[in-house]
Please model this.
Amino acid sequence: MAANGKPPVMVILQLTGGNDFMNTLVPYNNPVYYDARPTVVIPQDTVLPINDTLAFNPNAAPLKEMFDDGKVAIVQGIGYQNSSRSHFRGMDIWHTCEPDKIGTEGWVGRAIRDLDPKKENVLTGVNFGRGLPRAMALAGTPITSVGDLDNVGLMTGIEEEARRNLALDLFKKMYSPAVGTGPVMEYLAQTGSDVLTGADILKKAPESYTSEVEYADNPIAKSLKDVARVHLAGLGTRIFYTAHAGYDHHANELKTHPGLLRDLSGAIMDFFQDLRDHDAADEVSMLVFTEFGRRMRDNGSGTDHGSGGGAFIIGENVKGGLYAEYPSLNPSDWLKGEDLDWKIDFRGIYGTMLDQWMGLDSVPIVDGQFEQIHPFN
Model:
């Protein structure tokens, strides 16, 4: 149970495309960083220092403020052996915890199954976004996925059916090549009606919601507002999932990354303020992850796929600070001569959330026992 006696709730926020961790948590006093990145670099005089070696990107000021309040745990150097540089395969590995083979079960789906073994609530796991995240896919496990809470309430039955079919079609196209049509079609057959049933119940969530928080008009703020509204409606959701897209910065990173970090950190701060205003923040912890980091050297206008990324665990019950270890910037320690090395396996961070926050047994969910951190009070 959370500190207020209510069941713990986990919000998973996926940064799609591979967030540049070095330009998010900046090694601002390290000359190697500036030598390796003559262009795509955060100027030393603009950063928001947290100690003598690391600083937040200035566009993540709300996240820095939450960190100063002791509510943000930064997981440094997260990854896994022989990290994939493919978006599809990389995200697939993060979603199924299977680096060595194609997995057919999502880790979040397994967690939902453990939380609701009798399948009594189609809203135990809710995704806000298009399609169905692979992480939540598990044959026989109910799941609800909606693109936009406000639009769901306005749809006719025919439109809902069309939206559901579109979501399932997207899922089929995304995952059939990887796992074969058999498992995918079996999953879709069992999932379709759950998606529709759950969406129908979610229509009621905004009716009783009032808030003094003014969320920004951008996709991630809208999604987190939807999470807040459903959580505050008391519908029994234990795991929320949503994604913030746009982090694949091969070019124009200096133009796009600042706006993404502003939108992301502002939305997270507003979300937790909204929950606090409703005395509902104690039972919520958030995991923010991305499928890989970026390479040490810039490419003149952006950065290419790399490894050794970072994650964040955020919440009222979090002991803020730095966890694991920032990868060495010494060129002799670079993987493949161009990548940050990883320091802690992502499955150990999932395990941290599952064991220490959700009260589940993580071993069968993440397929093994991995080093964990201890970020919870």
In short: The two ends are 13 Å apart (CA to CA).
